[in-house]
Amino acid sequence: MPALTGPAFAQALSRALGFGPSKDPLEHKLARIAPLDALADLPHGSPVWIRADLDVEDRDGVIGDDPRLAGLHDTLEFGRAHGWRMLLLGHRGRKPEQTLEFVHQKLRATEAKAGPFVRDWFDERAGTLSGTATAAVRGLAPGSFLVFENLRRYGFETKAWKTTPEEVAPLADELARLAHAFRAASTVYVNDAVAASNKDFSSAALPLAMDRVALGTFTRKELADHVVRAREAGLVSFSGLKLDKLGDLHGIVKRGRVEMVVAGGNLAMALRKADGKRRGIEVSIGGAEDPARAAEKTYVPPEAIEKAGRLLEDAEKHRVKVVLPVDFVLDDGTVANDVPKGRLQCDVGPRTRAHFEAETLAWAKTTRRKVAFHNGVLGKFEEKPYAGGTEAMVGTLRRLQTAGVAVYVGGGEGRAALERYGKLGDVTHAFTAGGTILKCLADKALPFIEALWEQSKPA
Known about the structure:
- This protein has about 450 residues and is of the alpha/beta class.
- The protein has 17 helices and 17 strands.
- It folds into two domains: about 5-225 and about 445-455, Rossmann fold; about 235-370 and about 370-405, Phosphoglycerate kinase, N-terminal domain (Rossmann fold), CATH 3.40.50.
- It has helices spanning about 5-15, 25-30, 65-70, 75-80, 100-110, 130-140, 170-180, 200-205, 215-230, 245-255, 265-280, 300-315, 350-365, 390-400, 415-420, 435-440, 445-455; strands at about 45-50, 85-90, 115-120, 120-125, 130, 145-150, 190, 210-215, 235-240, 260-265, 320-325, 330, 335, 345-350, 370-375, 405-410, 430.
- The strands form four sheets. It has a six-stranded parallel sheet with strand order 3-6-2-1-7-8, with helices on both faces. It has a six-stranded parallel sheet with strand order 11-10-9-15-16-17, sandwiched between helices.
- α1 crosses α7.
């Protein structure tokens, strides 16, 4: 489909940003978005933008064997085989000053035909690619790749993050001009950044200005082979500090597939407090409800408890069993059945570990939905006194797999814990992305999928 302009660009951008997304399920969208091999007819030497997942950590400038960079290999290999000149775009973290130079060094060591690292590649004042960038693209040999510096060094990359529906039209004019400036280097775009699910310019706007788009090999496999299956989970296990997962969990409950929810961490604190309110019982969650700790990640604000209450109401309507902790390891190392005032829970206790395992294995014996999804960790698993719950959960996941359940683990800490206390082979699949997978399970729009979907519509 040719590049979008004017009102068509604005309308497509609005949908890509989640304002009136298509009601078509993820499965239908994946069927229409072109796979990588649909671009096999590009002439030898064609430049191709590749939105890559380069958000990896380094230790003093050294990057280990990272699954996100490893996942990029098949797309790069396809491009090498077809003589593409590959232009890699990506970011690291949320701080603009973070550099991708170490990522470029790692790719040079692991991938063939590495080209240069390009630092100052966009002229924001002129709204065009810099002379340095265009020269680097022209000088790149067929089959090679280059890496542009961190996208988030430029304000346009995150400009749509907090946009309201009313602000889309004027913003669309600006982003359309910027996106069309990228055509000076290439009019072909591939997205292989499954973990990049924010409303980034490079994910939601840039593909709309391209003539041809496709989904990279790794991202398509993650979504089509694994996420589609995980979306049918009858059991979901959620934990961690991030309370925004309440919205994801609520979305999963409302989809009507899940039969049991197991919760730990801050999520469990919000749910326990809300459950107590529904039953007319005062439940203490300790320092987590102390307004004096409002700046801390462990704080559970009243609005989170209200959200948890609405989630429990819908869980009851959909006949979803919610399993919560029954004891805790406190921040002084003691075990208690409740969280006293001023104290924080840092892990689930031994009775909860046994309770979680008994409930999940009982579910596995009776369910027809032989799929489970786990996300997060149950405590401060990096510290030995608070690692017991997470280690026990890894064992439970392994036993679920043995019982004939397809077990999927979200990225980030959940995958790290699996590798620490077990091995990747203990489950069906461990994702490299966390937030993206949660959004898919909750039927939330993924900007990069919505944009590719829009640009894949028949002219």
